[in-house]
Design brief:
This protein is an all-beta fold. The protein is built from no helices and eleven strands. A hairpin with a 4-residue loop joins strand 7 and strand 8.
């Protein structure tokens, strides 16, 4: 599985951004796909993920502000981020849990910066 992330950038507090993660390869073997984020001095955090059967999980810190969705025809997952806060500043990584042995695959990180 290959993951190509895009989106991100610089936005002011309260603004919105949308990240995309396009998957290719053995996409039918994806068990769950989503986003982690990491920032200097902070523990990496599972932001959100969606399972093959549509179950979604969100970190408490983003509930009500972020929404994950997918377009199966495009093999793409989206992360809509609203009401952004400075503490959302991080590098966001798309990941996928794949196959019977739950192998992890990662896309390249994309920087999200929220200015105060």
């Amino acid at each position: 599985v290959q993951l190509q992330a895009s989106g991100g950038g610089l936005v002011q507090t309260g603004g919105s951004l949308r990240l995309s993660c396009a998957a290719s390869g053995s996409v039918l073997s994806i068990n769950t796909i989503g986003w982690y984020r990491g920032a200097p001095g902070k523990k990496s955090e599972l932001v959100t993920n969606i399972t093959y059967d549509g179950n979604m999980h969100y970190a408490d810190s983003v509930k009500g502000r972020f929404a994950i969705s997918r377009d199966n025809a495009k093999n793409t997952v989206y992360l809509q981020m609203n009401s952004l806060r400075p503490e959302d500043t991080a590098v966001y990584y798309c990941f996928a849990d794949v196959g019977d042995y739950h192998e992890d695959y990662w896309g390249q990180g994309t920087q999200v910066t929220v200015s105060s």
